[in-house]
Amino acid sequence: MTHRIALIPGDGIGLEVTPVGVRCLEALARRPGLDFAFTEFPYSCEYYAEHGAMMPEDGIEQLRPHDAILLGAVGYPGVPDHVSLWGLLLPIRREFQQYVNLRPVRLLRGLTSALRDRGPEDINYLVVRENNEGEYSEIGGRLYDGLPEAMAVQATVITRKGSERILDYAFRLAQSRSRKRLAYATKSNGIKHTMPFWDEQVAAMAPNWPDVQVDGYHVDILAANFVTHPDWFDVVVGTNLFGDILSDLGPATAGGIGVAPSANINPSPDMPSMFEPVHGSAPDIAGQDLANPIAMIWTVVMMLEDLGEQEAADDLMGALETVTAEGRVLTRDLGGQAGTREFADRVLAELKG
Amino acid sequence: MTHRIALIPGDGIGLEVTPVGVRCLEALARRPGLDFAFTEFPYSCEYYAEHGAMMPEDGIEQLRPHDAILLGAVGYPGVPDHVSLWGLLLPIRREFQQYVNLRPVRLLRGLTSALRDRGPEDINYLVVRENNEGEYSEIGGRLYDGLPEAMAVQATVITRKGSERILDYAFRLAQSRSRKRLAYATKSNGIKHTMPFWDEQVAAMAPNWPDVQVDGYHVDILAANFVTHPDWFDVVVGTNLFGDILSDLGPATAGGIGVAPSANINPSPDMPSMFEPVHGSAPDIAGQDLANPIAMIWTVVMMLEDLGEQEAADDLMGALETVTAEGRVLTRDLGGQAGTREFADRVLAELKG
Ligand SMILES: CC(C)[C@H](C(=O)O)[C@@H](O)C(=O)O
Ligand SMILES: CC(C)[C@H](C(=O)O)[C@@H](O)C(=O)O
Q1: Between A264 and A82, whose confidence is greater?
Q2: Does A229 lie at the interface with B, CB-CB under 8 angstroms?
Q3: Which of A53, A274, A284, B48 is most buried (most C-beta within 10 Å)?
Q4: Residues 6+ apart with CB under 8 A from B220
Q5: What are the strands of the beta sheet with B151-159, ordered from one edge?
Q6: Which of A45, A76, A244 to mutate to test the pocket of ligand 2 (most atoms within 8 A of CB)?
């Protein structure tokens, strides 16, 4: 079975870590019955500099026939975020209705947590972020711009359909785990309209999942508990913005942003999902073989799982964690000496056995 | 000079920690030239149960003639947040235009950080939260409620006036500190209208403060950096919601919510400011002499500073930190054995010398 993979290396360290992901996939493809067809797309800030857009007008259509999209990182100094992100990353998430942003937070063996006295057994949860609506809306604008009376208004929109589908995903995921716990982020004590609505969806669905223990936390307290009680968490679901904050905070306690993977999932087989490390393009370290490829390798693991290739996924994750546990070859952000390529070589050697 | 203090003990552990604050003030008032006149207000969830409102209709008017309001905590199981908070806490913040919510994050000597290898020299910053507008607005509602098409919409409103005054406060504060650094939280890469507007206000004001080093962070990364690089921060300013999240997260790294103080400040002398611990009413431990009074004592220190009583403030803070540094008498949340009263007694003994 050939999986059609669209590659978008993007900018900065995206150009260094994406090839690592491809090397892992190619190594796995030596196995009988597993194959990948790669198509590379140059959509990036560099593309923007040449063409005045982050991708061509039919960019989404070109990506559509693939089974998955693997993205490195997007962003470049001088190109404003609203161009680079709203011109590429966010349209892909939305056009393909990738309404689940799944971000595991797990301290890999051998890595040191920024939290005192916390080890791999304490930090192992999944952040499920709503990825299509909520606080990231295009609705809003300004009044009296340039005058002392100026103001900006922005609408958060939470729909029943949008919250039901992400909550359904989160409940299902919690049900599948041994601890069966679901924490949800809210702020219904301060945000009067959208957040009580969100809470009501949770309350309405909970009885359908009698095995799942549901706990609501206001997002401020939840963030605090990621630091003081990471062991309380199993599956954590939040709206777009809250999920964004929590899924950067979690990794900060688990080896840093350089190791954090993510999947933008549309569970339907009709549309491609997109897989990307949580880290950005990191222009300050780009091109120097300094990037930590762990996030990308782990992201590839998530892609393999989504493609139904569980065995390949397990093998790659096993190789990765053997190398981190061993602790001899690590990149500088983790206190080691290795470059991007040397680390990747070590994982590939381990994978081949 | 007699300072007129309105006391609102509120609910739960508010009823235990507010008397500790009063005892500290009474001890300080034995000094010549310092005096307090207390008026207690029973506004609380219990009051609500009797009167059907958290405070009487003229509650705000009754509070107005005071120099400061000292609040314990509000909230009780069974009374929904929108009643207890939007009926008392939030109207006080708004009617008195307490647009600054100032929340110090500092690891007191003797306390242990939840962060690995971090001591008091690493964690010492001030979160300045916009307290009157932004994401906490009453604007919004529902469409198609009860139907599959249901949705809720909520407006975030950021005004130039509202952001200028909080930023002015933050710049001024940064200028007054030895490190002179100001970090601001944004999310202009995802939230298209209000956040770029906020960024523009910062950019427009920065040239007026040439000594202050200004750094912008998206709130997701900022939260992560509170864990990985707390030593980077000096003054941190954010909108209402972002400030809320960051000011719970910060304390989680600095001894926990039980030690975190806050001040809701209107810098003009015409309206009272309100001082309250960050913690809530904690019904689970209420009435058992288990509450940590550090947050309240530190909150009283902030109140004294705001009232211009710097010497009294310094003495009380000195006594508090002598006791924490000594580490013999601490409450259970900090690994000690002491009750609320015993800890308070120890601080008062230290204060009297
Ligand atoms: C209780 C709640 C409305 C409040 C807030 O979010 O402002 C609290 O979390 C705080 O930080 O004072
Ligand atoms: C770059 C930005 C728009 C994006 C987001 O907030 O979604 C990023 O922070 C992420 O988490 O993928």
Answers
A1: A264
A2: no
A3: A274
A4: A244, A245, A247, A248, A249, B187
A5: A140-143, A151-159, B151-159, B140-143
A6: A244
Split at pLDDT 50, 70, 90, the class of A190 is very high
DSSP three-state, residue A350: helix
pLDDT band at A244 (very low <50, low <70, confident <90, very high): very high
Q: Is B43 in CB contact (< 8 Å) with chain A?
A: no
Tokens found for residue B329: 């008498």
Q: Which residue puts its alpha carbon closest to atom 12 of ligand 1?
A: B278
- The sign of the dihedral angle between the CA atoms of B13, B19, B24, B28 is positive
**Would you say residue A353 has pLDDT above 80?**
no
- Contact list in A for residue B195 (CB cut-off 8 A) is 154
Closest atom, ligand 2, to C-alpha of A90: 3
Radius of gyration from C-alpha coordinates of chain B = 20
Among A163, A162, A180, CA closest to A171: A180
Residue B165 has pLDDT above 80, yes or no: yes
* B80: confidence class by pLDDT, cuts 50, 70, 90: confident
CA distance B2 to chain A (A): 35
Using DSSP bridges, classify how beta strands B35-40 and B151-159 pair: parallel, antiparallel or unpaired. unpaired
* Res A10: pLDDT: 97
**CB count in 10 Å sphere of residue B206:** 17
What is the distance, to the nearest Å, from the Cα of residue B161 to the centroid of all Cα atoms in its chain? 22
Model confidence at A283: pLDDT above 80: yes
Angular region, B142: left φ>0, alpha ψ -120 to 50, beta rest: beta
Task: Please spell the DSSP secondary structure of A182-236, one letter per residue.
Answer: EEEEE-TTT-TTHHHHHHHHHHHHGGG-TTSEEEEEEHHHHHHHHHH-GGG-SEE
Residue A49 to residue A78: CA distance in whole angstroms:
10
Which residue in chain A is spatially nearest to B140 when comparing CA positions? A193
Which DSSP symbol is given to A149?
A: T
pLDDT for residue B224 is more than 90: yes
Pairing of strands B2-10, B68-73: parallel
Q: How many CB atoms are closer than 10 A to CB A57?
A: 7
Structure tokens given for A58: 């039919």
Q: What percent of chain B has pLDDT over 90?
A: 94
Q: Where are the alpha helices (DSSP H) in B253-309?
A: 294-306
Rounded CA separation A166/A102 (Å): 10
What average pLDDT score do residues B184-189 get?
96
Determine the straight-line distance between the first and last CA of chain A, rounded to whole angstroms.
24
For residue A166, give the H/E element and its range.
Answer: helix A160-176
Measured CA to CA in angstroms, residue A204 lies from A158, A197, A336 at distances of 16, 11, 49
Pairwise CB contact (< 8 Å): B154 & A220? no
Model confidence at B353: pLDDT above 80: no
Report the C-alpha gap between B353 and B347 in whole angstroms. Answer: 10
pLDDT at B83: 85
Nearest CA, atom 12, ligand 2: A278
Interval between CA A225 and ligand 1 midpoint (Å): 16
Question: What is the structure's pLDDT at B348?
Answer: 98
Q: What is the mean pLDDT of residues A192-208?
A: 97
Q: Is A188 on the interface with B (CB under 8 A)?
A: yes
Question: Which pLDDT score, from 0 to 100, does residue B326 have?
Answer: 96
Q: What angle is formed at CA A291 by the lines to CA B191 and CA A245, rounded to 5 degrees?
A: 25
Structure tokens at B257: 């919510």
Mean pLDDT of chain A: 96
Contacts of A147 in chain B (CB under 8 A): 160
- CA of residue B245 to ligand 1 center, whole Å: 9
pTM of the model: 0.97
Q: What is the mean pLDDT of residues B337-351?
A: 98
Residue of A151, A161, A281 best to disrupt the B interface, most CBs of B under 10 A: A151
